[in-house]
């Protein structure tokens, strides 16, 4: 069984951030908020509802690992060639799947390019996924650039 690459965890933490911190007793916790794409989110990009109770950073990390395990399973289901590719390639697409959802990967030209081993075209496809809420988001531009570089690491 393939584990979630550590680089995918680091990448997701880097771009998601532990957002909306508030004090709960003596520790910092995160509260739910609406992300730029319009979804209720908590911790490191975990989808939730508006009334989700605050969580600690350790709880956010546990959510992240579970979410990335689901993203890994979906990534390998739709792009089985990644099971034998480099950790960088797998981590990049797991992060993409975590960020945008398995449905986006499933129906994308990116999926086709990956499964054909057309890595240059896959890099170009990755860089197209920079819209949130109908507009280009600088954070998504930066994230897709890092992911596209990882395709060649």
Q: Low-confidence spans: pLDDT under 50, at least 5 residues?
A: none
- H and E string: HEEEEEEHHHHHEEH
End-to-end separation:
22 Å
User: Could you estimate the helical fraction of the residues in percent?
Assistant: 40-55%
Q: Structural class of the secondary elements?
A: alpha+beta
Largest sheet, strands/sense/barrel: 3 strands, antiparallel
Strand % is 5-15%
Shape: globular
Number of strands: 8
Cα-atom radius of gyration: 16 Å
Helical segment count: 7
The strand order across the widest sheet is: 1-2-6
Q: What is the residue-averaged pLDDT? A: 94
Structure notes:
The structure is a single chain. Helix content is 52%, strand content 14%. A 3-stranded antiparallel sheet has the order 1-2-6. The model has no long low-confidence stretch (mean pLDDT 94). The chain is built from 7 helices and 8 strands; from the N terminus they run H-E-E-E-E-E-E-H-H-H-H-H-E-E-H. Helix 6 runs antiparallel to helix 7 (138-150). The protein has 153 residues and is of the alpha+beta class. The chain is globular and about 50 Å long.
